[in-house]
Specification:
The chain is built from 12 helices and 9 strands. It is an alpha/beta fold. The chain has a 9-stranded mixed beta sheet, with helices on both faces. Strand 6, helix 8 and strand 7 form a beta-alpha-beta unit. It is globular, with a radius of gyration of 20 Å. It binds beta-D-galactopyranuronic acid (GTR). The site of beta-D-galactopyranuronic acid has 7 residues, from helix 9.
């Protein structure tokens, strides 16, 4: 009883905070830098979208110096047709490439449901957990990456480790793909790629692989990440329009949450604790959120007209659920340009009442900062709804 009352109070407080954010002066996704209003999908596609993307590249995440490396290649080192007690085919893939500073490999694990019609849509998790957690998937049940449940619902479950692209530490951009592709003969530009962009670039190389695998429906793949992985999933989805669905779980600051008047983690706080995540220019906005030429609702808008899903948790104040929710609401005008509904709500839903019908999905879950079974259930319900599959309980 007391717990229920506490949850109700928390939900009520979140609604109040979400409403308070309504009056913020925020950049208008539909207004160009030159002050013109964008009024058609073409004007968005052919002009304003590139402008917003470029602002995020130059001021926030940084730009990758290469797209697909010239020698990118894929090697399937093992195929197990009887994975998950015969329900899935597991492929262990190595994505190899090189650049001026050396060579590297992304390790990818993929589970493909055996009884689903091919090609199969699914989910790519950008994992910031351990490699052991990925290779033992299916033997040990994990709420973070529940491969059995994903496969049981007829989806591909794929994952790679962010550290294969760049270890998550501030090393002056010496290791990982920065060491491989960055120029050594010139000072590092202030818009050079940070670690989050390196991880997002890796997810795109995985998409390059998906496009070659006849069992996988590369046109219906979701990219999913939690927290720092959620920031990365959003940035990846903005840069790489091949991902049909982009899922951010509790991505918070410089993820789904609006930067202006955000509660919890701020630009200054994130740049201080994680100076390697974003580009050097982003540090200019420490305590100067209002000077940022974009805000995070425009990152969500960069997914239009594709599907995007944002998840928050009640106790995750550091991420700031109302600021994540407001981003989704404020991205909606761009979806409307395409004749699509965005979120279809302006009031924050109560916990465990996911919004699944629009092209922007959202839920607030009761509990802590984590990626849980409930979160995955909502992601799959959202995919079912939009990818026209029958919703089946796991
Ligand atoms: C926190 C950080 C957040 C979030 C999180 C995580 O410490 O402040 O921005 O990314 O880590 O990735 O777990």
């Amino acid at each position: 009883m007391r717990r229920a009352a506490t949850y109700a109070m928390t939900a009520a407080l979140l609604v109040v905070l979400a409403r308070a954010a309504d009056d913020l002066p925020l950049p208008d996704p539909l207004k160009t830098v030159a002050g013109k209003t964008v009024a058609s999908p073409e004007a968005w596609r052919n002009g304003r979208r590139a402008e917003v993307l470029e602002l995020f590249r130059a001021q926030v995440y940084g730009r990758a110096p290469v797209a697909r490396p010239h020698d990118l290649r894929f090697e399937t080192i093992a195929t197990t047709k009887t994975a998950l007690s015969g329900r899935a085919t597991r492929k262990d893939v190595r994505i190899r490439f090189s650049g001026p500073g050396g060579e590297s490999t992304i390790r990818l694990v993929v589970f493909i449901p055996n009884n689903a019609p091919k090609p199969v849509p699914g989910f790519l998790l950008i994992s910031n957990h351990s490699w052991e957690g990925l290779v033992t998937a299916g033997q040990q049940s994990s709420p973070f990456w529940p491969v059995e449940r994903i496969v049981a619902r007829g989806y591909v479950a794929a994952a790679f480790l962010n550290a294969d692209l760049d270890p998550d530490k501030d090393d002056g951009f010496k290791d990982g793909v920065h060491g491989i592709f960055d120029r050594k003969d010139a000072p590092r530009p202030p818009d050079a790629w940070g670690t989050i962009t390196a991880w997002a670039w890796g997810a795109s190389r995985v998409m390059d692989y998906f496009e070659t695998d006849a069992d996988i429906d590369a046109k219906r793949m979701a990219v999913v990440g939690h927290s720092r992985g959620g920031k990365c999933a959003l940035w990846c989805g903005a840069e790489d329009e091949r991902f049909a669905l982009v899922i951010s779980n509790e991505s918070g600051c410089t993820g789904a949450a609006l930067a202006r008047r955000k509660q919890g983690e701020t630009i200054k706080a994130i740049n201080s604790r994680f100076p390697h995540w974003f580009c050097a220019n982003y540090k200019r906005y420490n305590d100067k959120e209002s000077e940022l030429p974009v805000d995070q609702h425009e990152l969500i808008a960069l997914m239009a007209p594709r599907l995007v899903y944002v998840a928050s948790a009640t106790n995750d104040k550091w991420s700031d659920p109302p600021a994540e929710f407001r981003s989704c609401v404020l991205a909606e005008p761009v979806y409307r340009l395409f004749g699509l509904s965005g979120l279809g709500a302006t009031n924050m839903p109560s916990p465990e009442h996911p919004l699944l019908d629009g092209h922007i999905g959202y839920h607030l879950r009761t509990g802590q900062h984590d990626l849980t079974g409930y979160d995955w259930t909502c992601f799959m319900d959202f995919a079912d709804r939009h990818w026209k599959k029958e919703s089946a309980k796991p």
